[in-house]
Design brief:
Lyase, Ornithine Decarboxylase, Chain A, domain 1, 401 residues, binds pyridoxal-5'-phosphate, alpha/beta, 30% helix, 2 domains, Diaminopimelate decarboxylase, pyridoxal phosphate binding, globular, De-COase2_C, amino-acid biosynthesis, EC 4.1.1.20, TIM Barrel, 8-stranded parallel β-barrel
Length: 401
């Protein structure tokens, strides 16, 4: 979609605003499935924690996607959006046993990442097939918060615990129908991915009733022009070939599953905010926008660098700006960034605002969460209203004090 469309949408729906381009989500989905077209049974489970608006979920459901969920609330949202339970996988970490049981009762595939939970679940529900999340201990991922496969990580069952795992399965007579791994986000090196895949294959050989192998996610998407990204076509070629070989070794057909979040929605998203103030100090020029890390926390939380464009003055002479928010503490979106000359009232556009942006927003400073718009067939559809004072007061109780 074009920047003039985005500018129009801010006039229609106000600021700050999230916009998602449906066509981009579709093209990413198709690019991924095409890269693995040599695999007979492929399943993409969209990791909905990246962006969980029900209209976006519905769009992905219509494309044939499944869903990767991490909480029972996400499972309920997925069901609400039209996913059938058999299209959903539940991959929690550190949730209560009751929550796992409740989700299993809904008919959703459970993925267990802890031996004591596995033993408990297998003893109580030996007839419910479960998937196990292994930790291959492969160091991957863009930064320490999103790299989850290393030795100290809280995620997964260590591959070194395989003997114990097998004993639990034998003792409880439970069925393991899938093996899963997810080593982190922003994995660049295909060889690292393939290396981890070998560990997964080696683990899989020990189980007789597998239906699927889930390779998680972590594809790196470009954040700026000419940025490095995972070569999906190359990965598709190499992993598909190896997967088909493994099926022969294993002796039956398996489903190859992925659960991308960022890959499907990151580039489809735009965050639009208006410049309230331009402030010159002794060291820099600040552009202060009508938003903050309450709406987009990734720069402050992960050090993410989102491209920022001045869509009100795209042809303007470029100058250096530090873009900041209105939160009453350090709230920096970008330091010393070249942006077309900014005037108060201009609209700035943040790229890659589809994944982990709205879904991580909060009401800090008692601000409203932004509205969300889905751009489809050349038209903007409001898919979430901007909050109001009622939302801020909802659930609050003022007692006699
Ligand atoms: C967060 C998460 C994903 C998605 O990761 P992306 O980097 O957004 O693709 C996939 N699987 C699991 C288990 C996750 O926790």
């Amino acid at each position: 979609m074009q920047t003039k469309d985005l500018l129009e949408l801010t006039k229609e729906f106000g600021n700050p605003l999230y916009v998602y381009d449906a066509e981009k989500i579709e093209s990413q989905y198709k690019r991924l499935t095409k890269a693995f077209s040599k695999v007979e049974k492929l399943r993409i489970n969209y990791a909905m924690k990246a962006l969980s608006n029900v209209s976006v979920l519905k769009l992905l459901n219509n494309l044939g996607s499944g869903l990767d969920t991490v909480s029972i609330q996400e499972v309920h949202l997925g069901l609400h959006a039209g996913f059938t339970p058999d299209k959903i996988i539940f991959t929690p970490n550190g949730v209560s046993f009751e929550e796992i049981e409740e989700v299993a009762k809904l008919g959703v595939q459970i993925n267990i990442d802890n031996l004591s939970v596995l033993e408990h679940f297998g003893t109580k529900h030996p007839k419910t097939p479960v998937c196990i999340r292994i930790n291959p201990h492969v160091m991957a991922g863009g930064n320490s918060n999103i790299s989850v496969g290393h030795i100290d990580s809280k995620f997964g069952i260590s591959v070194h615990q395989l003997p114990h795992l097998l004993r639990i399965v034998e003792n409880t007579k439970m069925t393991i129908n899938g093996i899963h791994m997810h080593t982190g986000s922003d994995i660049l090196d295909i060889e690292v991915f393939l290396y981890a895949a070998e560990i997964l294959f080696n683990t899989a050989k020990h189980f007789k009733n597998l239906e699927f192998l889930d390779f998680g996610s972590g594809f790196k998407v470009p954040y700026k022009k000419d940025d490095i990204e995972t070569d999906i076509e190359e990965l598709g070629k190499k992993l598909s070939k190896r997967f088909v070989e493994f099926e022969k070794e294993y002796g039956s057909k398996l489903t190859l599953a992925f659960e991308p979040g960022k890959y499907l929605v990151s580039e489809a998203g735009y965050f639009l905010a208006k410049v309230n103030v331009v402030k010159q100090t002794t060291s820099t020029v600040f552009a202060g926008i009508d938003s903050g890390f309450n709406h987009l926390i990734r720069p402050m939380f992960y050090g993410s660098q989102h491209v920022i464009e001045n869509i009100s003055n795209p042809k303007g002479k470029e100058r250096f700006y530090t873009v900041v928010g209105y939160i009453c503490e350090t709230d920096t979106f970008a330091n010393n960034r070249r942006i077309a000359e900014i005037h108060e009232g201009d609209v700035l556009c943040f790229r890659n605002a589809g994944a982990y942006c709205f879904s991580m927003s909060s009401n800090y400073n008692s601000r409203f969460k932004p509205a969300e718009v889905l751009w489809k067939n050349g038209k903007g559809h409001l898919i979430r209203e901007r909050q109001t004072m009622d939302d801020i007061l909802k659930n609050q109780i003022m007692v006699e004090v």
